[in-house]
Amino acid sequence: MRILVTGGAGLIGSHLCTTLIEAGHDVTVIDNLLTGHRRNIAVLESSPRFHFLQRDVLLPIEPASYEAVFHLASPASPVGYGRYPIETMLVNSQGTLNALEAARRSGASFLLTSTSEIYGDPVEHPQTETYWGNVNSVGPRCCYDEGKRYAEALTINYVWNYGLNARIVRIFNTYGPHNDPEDGRIIPNFINQALHNEPITVYGDGRQTRSFCFVSDLVSGIMRAMFCEETCGEVFNIGNPDEYAVQEIADVVKRITNSSSPIIHTDARDEEIARRRPDISKARAVLGWQPTVPLEEGLRQTVEWFKSLVPA
Q1: Across the chain, which distance is largest between two alpha carbons, in Å?
Q2: Average pLDDT over residues 188-204
Q3: How far apart are CA 88 and CA 170, in angstroms?
Q4: Which residues are catalytic?
Q5: What CATH architecture applies to the domain 2-174+214-239+282-287?
Q6: Which of 5, 172, 248, 265 has a C-alpha 20 to 30 A away from that of 54?
Q7: Over 80: is that where the pLDDT of 311 sits?
């Protein structure tokens, strides 16, 4: 198949591209490298079936006979969308429109990667796809939350109005090799600090919980959502339902890195989310998918990636 991936130089996008190339597909990536990194796709660039276009998805996408479009382009971390709030809103509005139009003109299948952030600070736990969320539309995360909500609404309207074969996946916390060390999320922060024997900083009391999915599991879920039958117009939570307190993650990272870093606590961030955990019953039933990589195994692989970035 001829496949377009927007945001293909990011954490998830680069692993998705590798999986697609290994499956024999022809892959074109559009990425402006605002938060993605060329190093993440460097090993793919020697493949004749891989094509990289460094350009902004806000520009119209040139017509091509794509058979599938994966739309991943967007800053996705608090540091990323905090630094680029307007760009985040535009890539999820105009960028999503351009990606949808590329799929519509090509007669391609379409997949939007949305986010668990659309659930906000949930009062339903765990979160199902039918939960509408508890979101502050003018809060510090609004550029990302509301950008993704708009992208979801635009995508489903393309299904209803044009018959586009599209689906939406809501991604929960994901980690693994190609994590940006500077992206500000829990696991990259903790590993970075531990490897440099700096204080491991926990915001708040550390009892807030998160669920972490290793990137290879996440990509497997995305692939199934795109290519399994009867997924058009559907929304799927893709994440790991195992729930951990942030303090537990800090303890594990310190242990597996054999770090001398102290674990310290600082003030909670504005609108810190208390609990986040996906209900993946629908993905299990419809896609036959569930994560398989244990947290500690995934963390060890991620630590090795971070070590490879540290000068000897």
Answers
A1: 58
A2: 94
A3: 17
A4: 144
A5: 3-Layer(aba) Sandwich (3.40)
A6: 172
A7: no
